């Protein structure tokens, strides 16, 4: 109940006011059954606008820190993520990735929509970064369709480093499902999941106006790479 209340009454109208969001390609999302929405990630607002504009309920696997905070802010954050049905995952320890993927498989086995950002973190510079393979480690064994999603305009509404939102124009493109038939396997190899992941990132790149950086987003947060370093012209090898 809270998910739909937040979406349609408490938060949705504010998002529509600030972002004037539009969506194309939503007809690619099946009305029922498991599906993976794999999106580029520019700002925190991406999740809010994606939930707002997609008719089906989306579940994200959220970092555990959102559920363990203290004080008023921590309690409000935990209450919000819990009431909207988001699933906590502990990302520390050796089994963290395995637990996250098992949780994602559970969402799909229940016929749900799993929302995921294959870059793993928000882009620190507005460019598209190397994809992590978790999406395909779930998609290939389960056969769940993977729909690339391109977000545009959210940085103008929710600038990185600012607590103030601004008026802007958000547009979401839902691409057709990837053809992964040649990659499907009960236990796909490392080479297979990387090849399928690169195919996903190629589609995101082709449908966005971003440049590509052949490095993980989290690495670029920790290490300041030279800004003049040019992206590879064909980075998916």
From TrEMBL:
GO MF: acyltransferase activity
Record CDD domains: LPLAT_AGPAT-like
Domain of life: Bacteria
Domain Phospholipid/glycerol acyltransferase, chain residue ranges per copy: 35-154
Listed Pfam families: Acyltransferase
SUPFAM superfamilies per UniProt: Glycerol-3-phosphate (1)-acyltransferase
Keyword set, alphabetical order: Acyltransferase, Transferase
PANTHER family: 1-ACYL-SN-GLYCEROL-3-PHOSPHATE ACYLTRANSFERASE (PTHR10434:SF11)
Protein name: Lysophospholipid acyltransferase family protein
Source organism of the structure: Rhodococcus daqingensis
Lineage: Bacteria, Bacillati, Actinomycetota, Actinomycetes, Mycobacteriales
């Amino acid at each position: 109940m809270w998910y739909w209340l937040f979406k349609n009454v408490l938060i949705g109208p504010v998002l529509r006011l600030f972002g004037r969001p539009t969506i194309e390609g939503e007809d690619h999302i099946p009305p029922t059954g498991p599906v993976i929405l794999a999106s580029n990630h520019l700002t925190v607002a991406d999740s809010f606008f994606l939930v707002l504009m997609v008719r089906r309920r989306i579940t994200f696997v959220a970092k555990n820190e959102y559920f363990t905070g203290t004080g008023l802010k921590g309690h409000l954050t935990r209450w919000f993520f819990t009431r909207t049905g988001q699933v906590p995952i502990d990302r520390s320890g050796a089994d963290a990735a395995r637990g996250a993927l098992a949780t994602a498989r559970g969402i799909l086995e229940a016929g749900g929509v799993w929302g995921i950002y294959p870059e793993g973190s928000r882009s620190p510079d507005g460019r598209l970064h190397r994809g992590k393979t978790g999406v395909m480690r779930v998609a290939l064994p389960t056969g769940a369709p993977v729909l690339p999603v391109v977000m545009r305009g959210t940085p103008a509404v929710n600038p990185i480093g600012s607590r103030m939102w601004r008026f802007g124009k958000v547009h979401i493109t839902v691409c057709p499902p990837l053809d992964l038939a040649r990659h499907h396997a009960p236990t796909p190899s490392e080479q297979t999941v990387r090849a399928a992941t690169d195919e996903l990132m190629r589609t995101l790149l082709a449908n966005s106006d971003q440049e590509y950086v052949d490095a993980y987003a989290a690495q670029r947060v920790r290490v300041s790479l030279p800004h003049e370093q040019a992206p590879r012209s064909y980075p998916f090898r």
